[in-house]
Protein backbone atom coordinates (compact mmCIF):
# COMPACT_ATOMS: atom_id res chain seq x y z
CA UNK A 1 0.00 0.00 0.00
CA UNK A 2 1.45 3.39 -0.99
CA UNK A 3 1.49 6.06 1.69
CA UNK A 4 2.77 9.03 -0.29
CA UNK A 5 2.92 10.32 -3.83
CA UNK A 6 4.89 13.09 -5.57
CA UNK A 7 3.58 14.78 -8.70
CA UNK A 8 4.65 17.72 -10.81
CA UNK A 9 2.19 20.54 -11.38
CA UNK A 10 3.02 22.53 -14.55
CA UNK A 11 2.17 26.21 -15.07
CA UNK A 12 0.13 27.32 -18.06
CA UNK A 13 0.31 30.26 -20.41
CA UNK A 14 -2.43 31.61 -22.64
CA UNK A 15 -1.19 31.77 -26.23
CA UNK A 16 -4.38 33.62 -27.20
CA UNK A 17 -7.10 35.04 -24.96
CA UNK A 18 -10.37 36.43 -26.28
CA UNK A 19 -13.57 37.35 -24.44
CA UNK A 20 -16.85 36.90 -26.26
CA UNK A 21 -19.12 38.54 -23.69
CA UNK A 22 -20.44 38.44 -20.14
CA UNK A 23 -22.46 35.43 -19.03
CA UNK A 24 -25.64 35.41 -16.96
CA UNK A 25 -23.67 33.71 -14.13
CA UNK A 26 -21.30 36.71 -13.92
CA UNK A 27 -18.34 34.93 -15.54
CA UNK A 28 -16.99 35.85 -18.97
CA UNK A 29 -17.35 33.73 -22.07
CA UNK A 30 -13.79 32.84 -23.06
CA UNK A 31 -12.01 31.65 -26.18
CA UNK A 32 -8.43 30.94 -25.23
CA UNK A 33 -5.60 28.62 -26.19
CA UNK A 34 -3.90 27.29 -23.07
CA UNK A 35 -0.50 25.61 -23.13
CA UNK A 36 1.44 23.92 -20.35
CA UNK A 37 5.06 24.91 -19.75
CA UNK A 38 7.83 23.19 -17.84
CA UNK A 39 7.77 25.61 -14.91
CA UNK A 40 6.68 23.17 -12.21
CA UNK A 41 5.48 23.13 -8.65
CA UNK A 42 6.26 19.82 -6.97
CA UNK A 43 3.49 18.40 -4.84
CA UNK A 44 3.95 15.60 -2.32
CA UNK A 45 0.87 14.14 -0.67
CA UNK A 46 1.26 11.91 2.38
CA UNK A 47 -1.52 9.97 4.03
CA UNK A 48 -2.11 10.83 7.66
CA UNK A 49 -4.71 9.64 10.15
CA UNK A 50 -6.99 12.66 10.06
CA UNK A 51 -7.14 16.27 8.93
CA UNK A 52 -5.59 18.21 6.07
CA UNK A 53 -2.33 20.06 6.44
CA UNK A 54 -0.64 22.22 3.81
CA UNK A 55 3.04 23.13 3.96
CA UNK A 56 4.59 25.34 1.28
CA UNK A 57 8.03 26.65 0.48
CA UNK A 58 6.67 30.14 -0.28
CA UNK A 59 5.75 32.83 2.21
CA UNK A 60 3.35 34.22 -0.37
CA UNK A 61 1.14 31.14 -0.29
CA UNK A 62 -1.49 31.05 2.42
CA UNK A 63 -1.42 27.56 3.90
CA UNK A 64 -4.79 27.54 5.67
CA UNK A 65 -8.15 26.15 4.53
CA UNK A 66 -8.55 28.93 1.94
CA UNK A 67 -5.61 27.52 -0.03
CA UNK A 68 -6.90 25.97 -3.29
CA UNK A 69 -4.86 22.78 -2.78
CA UNK A 70 -6.37 22.43 0.71
CA UNK A 71 -9.87 22.98 -0.72
CA UNK A 72 -9.22 20.41 -3.45
CA UNK A 73 -8.24 17.82 -0.85
CA UNK A 74 -11.22 18.64 1.37
CA UNK A 75 -13.65 18.40 -1.54
CA UNK A 76 -12.51 15.05 -2.88
CA UNK A 77 -11.97 13.40 0.52
CA UNK A 78 -15.42 14.47 1.65
CA UNK A 79 -17.15 13.46 -1.59
CA UNK A 80 -15.70 9.95 -1.35
CA UNK A 81 -16.24 9.71 2.37
CA UNK A 82 -12.55 9.18 3.15
CA UNK A 83 -11.93 9.17 6.89
CA UNK A 84 -8.16 9.55 6.51
CA UNK A 85 -6.34 12.86 6.12
CA UNK A 86 -3.42 14.15 4.06
CA UNK A 87 -0.34 16.29 4.46
CA UNK A 88 0.34 18.28 1.30
CA UNK A 89 3.77 19.69 0.69
CA UNK A 90 4.03 22.27 -2.09
CA UNK A 91 7.45 23.16 -3.41
CA UNK A 92 6.47 26.42 -5.03
CA UNK A 93 8.34 27.40 -8.17
CA UNK A 94 5.50 29.03 -10.10
CA UNK A 95 5.09 32.70 -9.16
CA UNK A 96 1.93 33.56 -7.22
CA UNK A 97 -0.82 35.86 -8.59
CA UNK A 98 0.94 35.81 -11.93
CA UNK A 99 -1.54 34.67 -14.59
CA UNK A 100 0.21 31.29 -14.83
CA UNK A 101 -2.44 29.18 -13.01
CA UNK A 102 -0.10 28.32 -10.13
CA UNK A 103 -2.89 27.75 -7.60
CA UNK A 104 -5.09 25.90 -10.09
CA UNK A 105 -2.35 23.50 -11.14
CA UNK A 106 -1.57 22.67 -7.50
CA UNK A 107 -5.27 21.95 -6.92
CA UNK A 108 -5.39 19.74 -10.03
CA UNK A 109 -2.31 17.81 -8.88
CA UNK A 110 -3.88 17.30 -5.44
CA UNK A 111 -7.08 15.92 -7.00
CA UNK A 112 -5.14 13.49 -9.21
CA UNK A 113 -2.75 12.57 -6.42
CA UNK A 114 -5.48 11.81 -3.87
CA UNK A 115 -7.39 9.77 -6.44
CA UNK A 116 -4.31 7.63 -6.96
CA UNK A 117 -3.19 7.53 -3.33
CA UNK A 118 -6.56 6.33 -2.02
CA UNK A 119 -7.43 4.40 -5.16
CA UNK A 120 -10.72 6.30 -5.39
CA UNK A 121 -13.26 5.30 -8.06
CA UNK A 122 -13.34 8.77 -9.66
CA UNK A 123 -13.57 8.97 -13.44
CA UNK A 124 -12.00 11.85 -15.36
CA UNK A 125 -15.36 13.54 -15.97
CA UNK A 126 -16.14 13.66 -12.26
CA UNK A 127 -12.64 14.90 -11.48
CA UNK A 128 -13.21 17.65 -14.08
CA UNK A 129 -16.47 18.64 -12.32
CA UNK A 130 -14.77 18.77 -8.93
CA UNK A 131 -12.00 20.80 -10.53
CA UNK A 132 -14.42 23.34 -11.99
CA UNK A 133 -16.00 23.85 -8.57
CA UNK A 134 -12.53 25.02 -7.45
CA UNK A 135 -11.75 27.37 -10.36
CA UNK A 136 -12.15 27.92 -14.10
CA UNK A 137 -8.55 26.92 -14.94
CA UNK A 138 -8.51 23.69 -12.93
CA UNK A 139 -10.14 21.50 -15.64
CA UNK A 140 -7.41 22.51 -18.11
CA UNK A 141 -4.72 21.85 -15.52
CA UNK A 142 -6.18 18.35 -15.01
CA UNK A 143 -6.13 17.66 -18.72
CA UNK A 144 -2.87 19.35 -19.65
CA UNK A 145 -1.12 19.74 -23.01
CA UNK A 146 -2.48 22.40 -25.35
CA UNK A 147 -6.19 23.07 -25.66
CA UNK A 148 -8.74 25.54 -26.91
CA UNK A 149 -10.82 26.46 -23.86
CA UNK A 150 -14.26 28.04 -24.17
CA UNK A 151 -17.16 28.64 -21.77
CA UNK A 152 -15.71 29.68 -18.41
CA UNK A 153 -12.54 27.98 -19.60
CA UNK A 154 -13.76 24.48 -18.85
CA UNK A 155 -14.97 23.37 -22.30
CA UNK A 156 -11.77 21.92 -23.66
CA UNK A 157 -10.83 20.86 -27.20
CA UNK A 158 -7.40 19.26 -27.19
CA UNK A 159 -5.02 20.54 -29.85
CA UNK A 160 -2.46 18.18 -31.35
CA UNK A 161 1.17 18.22 -30.28
CA UNK A 162 2.99 20.74 -32.43
CA UNK A 163 6.00 22.97 -31.89
CA UNK A 164 8.02 22.68 -28.70
CA UNK A 165 8.16 26.36 -27.84
CA UNK A 166 11.09 28.17 -26.23
CA UNK A 167 9.85 31.00 -24.05
CA UNK A 168 11.01 33.61 -21.60
CA UNK A 169 8.49 34.40 -18.87
CA UNK A 170 8.78 37.63 -16.90
CA UNK A 171 6.69 38.18 -13.78
CA UNK A 172 6.83 41.82 -12.60
CA UNK A 173 7.16 42.18 -8.81
CA UNK A 174 3.45 42.49 -7.98
CA UNK A 175 0.37 40.30 -8.09
CA UNK A 176 -2.94 41.05 -9.76
CA UNK A 177 -6.40 39.85 -8.80
CA UNK A 178 -8.04 37.91 -11.65
CA UNK A 179 -11.49 38.88 -10.39
CA UNK A 180 -10.55 42.60 -10.41
CA UNK A 181 -9.15 42.41 -13.94
CA UNK A 182 -12.28 40.73 -15.31
CA UNK A 183 -14.45 43.23 -13.45
CA UNK A 184 -12.67 46.16 -15.11
CA UNK A 185 -12.77 44.58 -18.59
CA UNK A 186 -14.60 46.66 -21.26
CA UNK A 187 -14.88 45.21 -24.75
CA UNK A 188 -14.86 48.70 -26.34
CA UNK A 189 -11.40 49.37 -24.85
CA UNK A 190 -9.77 46.42 -26.62
CA UNK A 191 -7.41 47.48 -29.40
CA UNK A 192 -6.29 44.07 -30.70
CA UNK A 193 -8.19 40.79 -30.77
CA UNK A 194 -6.60 37.41 -31.50
CA UNK A 195 -7.68 35.47 -34.57
CA UNK A 196 -8.12 32.20 -32.73
CA UNK A 197 -9.01 30.10 -35.78
CA UNK A 198 -5.99 31.37 -37.69
CA UNK A 199 -3.82 30.72 -34.64
CA UNK A 200 -5.07 27.13 -34.41
CA UNK A 201 -4.49 26.56 -38.12
CA UNK A 202 -0.90 27.80 -37.78
CA UNK A 203 -0.44 25.70 -34.62
CA UNK A 204 -1.64 22.57 -36.43
CA UNK A 205 0.73 23.33 -39.33
CA UNK A 206 3.70 23.90 -36.97
CA UNK A 207 3.93 27.42 -38.44
CA UNK A 208 5.58 29.49 -35.73
CA UNK A 209 5.49 32.81 -37.57
CA UNK A 210 1.81 32.41 -38.46
CA UNK A 211 1.05 31.39 -34.91
CA UNK A 212 2.84 34.42 -33.44
CA UNK A 213 1.02 36.74 -35.85
CA UNK A 214 -2.30 35.75 -34.27
CA UNK A 215 -1.34 35.77 -30.58
CA UNK A 216 -3.16 38.46 -28.60
CA UNK A 217 -4.65 38.79 -25.12
CA UNK A 218 -7.64 41.12 -24.73
CA UNK A 219 -7.08 41.39 -20.95
CA UNK A 220 -3.97 43.48 -21.68
CA UNK A 221 -6.46 46.33 -22.19
CA UNK A 222 -7.04 46.24 -18.42
CA UNK A 223 -3.77 45.16 -16.79
CA UNK A 224 -1.46 47.15 -19.10
CA UNK A 225 -3.47 50.27 -18.33
CA UNK A 226 -2.77 49.78 -14.61
CA UNK A 227 0.85 48.71 -14.99
CA UNK A 228 2.64 50.44 -17.88
CA UNK A 229 5.70 48.30 -17.12
CA UNK A 230 4.03 45.31 -18.79
CA UNK A 231 4.21 47.02 -22.17
CA UNK A 232 7.82 48.03 -21.52
CA UNK A 233 8.76 44.40 -20.75
CA UNK A 234 6.97 43.18 -23.90
CA UNK A 235 8.86 45.72 -26.04
CA UNK A 236 12.15 44.86 -24.38
CA UNK A 237 11.65 41.15 -25.10
CA UNK A 238 10.91 41.87 -28.77
CA UNK A 239 14.01 44.10 -28.98
CA UNK A 240 15.99 41.18 -27.56
CA UNK A 241 14.82 38.91 -30.39
CA UNK A 242 11.43 37.50 -29.36
CA UNK A 243 9.09 36.86 -32.30
CA UNK A 244 6.12 37.74 -30.15
CA UNK A 245 5.43 38.82 -26.61
CA UNK A 246 2.05 39.00 -24.86
CA UNK A 247 0.66 38.95 -21.34
CA UNK A 248 -0.53 35.60 -19.94
CA UNK A 249 -4.04 35.29 -18.49
CA UNK A 250 -5.01 38.28 -16.38
CA UNK A 251 -1.30 39.05 -15.90
CA UNK A 252 0.98 40.48 -14.88
CA UNK A 253 3.33 37.81 -16.33
CA UNK A 254 4.58 38.36 -19.84
CA UNK A 255 5.55 35.50 -22.13
CA UNK A 256 7.83 35.81 -25.13
CA UNK A 257 8.33 33.26 -27.91
CA UNK A 258 11.79 32.78 -29.38
CA UNK A 259 12.69 30.67 -32.42
CA UNK A 260 16.15 29.91 -31.05
CA UNK A 261 17.60 29.13 -27.66
CA UNK A 262 20.58 31.53 -27.79
CA UNK A 263 18.62 34.83 -27.96
CA UNK A 264 16.16 33.48 -25.39
CA UNK A 265 19.04 32.69 -23.01
CA UNK A 266 20.50 36.16 -23.58
CA UNK A 267 17.13 37.86 -22.97
CA UNK A 268 16.70 35.78 -19.80
CA UNK A 269 20.13 36.83 -18.48
CA UNK A 270 19.54 40.52 -19.23
CA UNK A 271 16.00 40.80 -17.85
CA UNK A 272 16.76 38.72 -14.75
CA UNK A 273 19.14 41.47 -13.62
CA UNK A 274 16.19 43.84 -13.10
CA UNK A 275 13.29 41.44 -12.69
CA UNK A 276 14.04 38.57 -10.32
CA UNK A 277 11.12 36.38 -11.33
CA UNK A 278 12.28 35.72 -14.90
CA UNK A 279 12.30 32.19 -16.31
CA UNK A 280 13.45 30.43 -19.45
CA UNK A 281 11.06 27.59 -20.18
CA UNK A 282 9.75 25.35 -22.91
CA UNK A 283 6.53 23.50 -23.62
CA UNK A 284 5.82 20.85 -21.00
CA UNK A 285 6.46 17.36 -22.28
CA UNK A 286 4.97 14.76 -19.98
CA UNK A 287 7.55 12.10 -20.73
CA UNK A 288 10.84 12.44 -19.00
CA UNK A 289 9.78 14.97 -16.34
CA UNK A 290 9.54 13.42 -12.88
O1 LIG B 1 -12.93 30.62 -11.73
P1 LIG B 1 -11.99 31.41 -10.89
O2 LIG B 1 -12.41 31.43 -9.44
O3 LIG B 1 -10.57 31.03 -11.06
O4 LIG B 1 -12.09 32.89 -11.41
C1 LIG B 1 -11.61 33.99 -10.69
C2 LIG B 1 -12.42 35.20 -11.08
O5 LIG B 1 -12.16 35.56 -12.43
C3 LIG B 1 -13.92 34.97 -11.02
O6 LIG B 1 -14.42 35.29 -9.76
C4 LIG B 1 -14.44 35.89 -12.06
O7 LIG B 1 -14.56 37.17 -11.50
C5 LIG B 1 -13.34 35.96 -13.09
N1 LIG B 1 -13.58 35.09 -14.28
C6 LIG B 1 -14.53 35.49 -15.21
N2 LIG B 1 -14.76 34.70 -16.30
C7 LIG B 1 -14.08 33.53 -16.47
C8 LIG B 1 -13.12 33.13 -15.52
C9 LIG B 1 -12.90 33.94 -14.43
O8 LIG B 1 -15.16 36.54 -15.07
N3 LIG B 1 -14.34 32.80 -17.56
Order of helices and strands: EEEHEHHHEEEHHHHHEEHE
**What is the fold named in CATH at topology level of the largest domain?**
Ribosomal Protein S5, domain 2
Oligomeric assembly: single chain
Distance between the amino and carboxyl termini:
21 Å
Would you tell me the overall average pLDDT? 96
The radius of gyration over CA amounts to 19 Å
Which range best describes the helical content: under 10%, 10-25%, 25-40%, 40-55%, 55-70% or over 70%? 25-40%
- Kindly give the count of domains: 2
Characterise the protein shown here.
By secondary structure, the protein is α+β, with helices and mostly antiparallel strands. It folds into 2 domains: 4-158, Ribosomal Protein S5, domain 2, CATH 3.30.230; 166-282, Alpha-Beta Plaits, CATH 3.30.70.890. The protein is built from 10 helices and 10 strands. It has helices spanning 68-79, 102-117, 124-134, 138-143, 178-184, 196-204, 208-213, 220-226, 229-239, 261-272; strands at 4-22, 28-48, 52-56, 85-91, 146-151, 155-158, 166-170, 244-247, 254-258, 278-282. α2 packs antiparallel against α3 (124-134). Bound molecules: cytidine-5'-monophosphate (C5P). Cytidine-5'-monophosphate (C5P) binds at residues 27-28, 30, 135-137, 152-153, 178-179, 182.
